[in-house]
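Feature request, filed as a ticket because there's no other form

It would be nice if the structure record came with a short human-readable summary line next to the tokens. Right now we just get the raw output. Example of a typical job, pasted below so the devs can see what we mean:
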Amino acid sequence: MNQISKKALALLLAGVVMIGMTACGNSSSKNETPAEKPAEQDSSTGEKTFTPSGKTLNVGVQSNIISIPTYYAYEQGYYDELGLDVNIVMFPNGSPENEGLAAEQLDVASNGLASVYSMASGLCDWIAESDSGSITAAVYMRPTCAATQVKGEIDGKPDMLGSTETLKGLRVLGPTSTMEQWIAASYFAQFGLSAGVDYEYLNMDRAAAAQALIGGEGDVFVATDVDYARMMEENGFIKVADCMEATDTSFNNGFLVRKDILEERYDDVVLFLQAMYRAADELQGNRELRNSVAYKYYSDNGKPANEEDVAKEGEIRPFITSSDLGVDGFQLGSGALKVGSFFASIGTIEEDQVALIEEAINPAPLQDALGITVEAAALD
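Raw output as currently delivered:
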């Protein structure tokens, strides 16, 4: 398979409409999904059975830890074994994946924080989670910035660097509609600062942004994994805040599916999750295998990494496996709901869209895929 699908290339060149405008697709809530429709049953066991539609399922992935189990399942033929025709489409980050979903060129997307926008628009449901997107994330700053010399300005965060006056006028480089933008906005907001008024957020692919910082452009970069963190530290940049300091919350990456696909091809979605979690379980249960697969995946898809980074990532950022779901305390979509509430508080989305995010958290396909009960996060 080509590393960048022709569909992905066509999508990027087409300039399709961004999420955040009026969304298309079915707007039914999770309580009205096909989870309640009668499913076929195995006559000998009484268990539900699911039948592939025979249509191609277009799945968006990124050159990121988010998508490793999805891609590994593809390479191992796990989708084929279930009768699924899966087409993998590579993207640089979550924003163009949202565009692909809106343009109906993607059916499912392995996505990060950018998923919140597709949920808030009423376009997609959040159906599963893959890994913690926030464990390894941190804000880095050029050492010549005065903000690196000030700390303890925010109550309860004695080690977080920065102050209102020293942060004004700085330029953040990174992709929009992503975890990077959320973390940066949260960090600056703690000091009462807003993008476009007190500081600049310049939209740039994460790899290009990192290189630009190293080359002397901009002041701030949000590293979302260990290889970018290493790159910043090796070039003298200073960590001013980790994700929890910057945002007061955590976020799991996961999976979006268009509501119309869920309505029309529910069995395909369930089978997709079965294969993906088979891959996640296998990778998480074998550290050597996970490291080799991850290193190859990154190398093949243009992500800067070395074997040491990959091994470290494997130690501190586990995949979410089937055994992690359905246990006490796990709530599907809790991070997405917290992030959506934050976005509403700073005007990134409308207040009434938070309810749409809550409605989009749909555990039904996951429950059917794994035969477990999963709690969905809800507004207080």
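Something like this underneath would help us a lot:
Residues 1-36 have pLDDT under 50 and may be disordered.
The CA atoms of residues 69 and 279 lie 5 Å apart.
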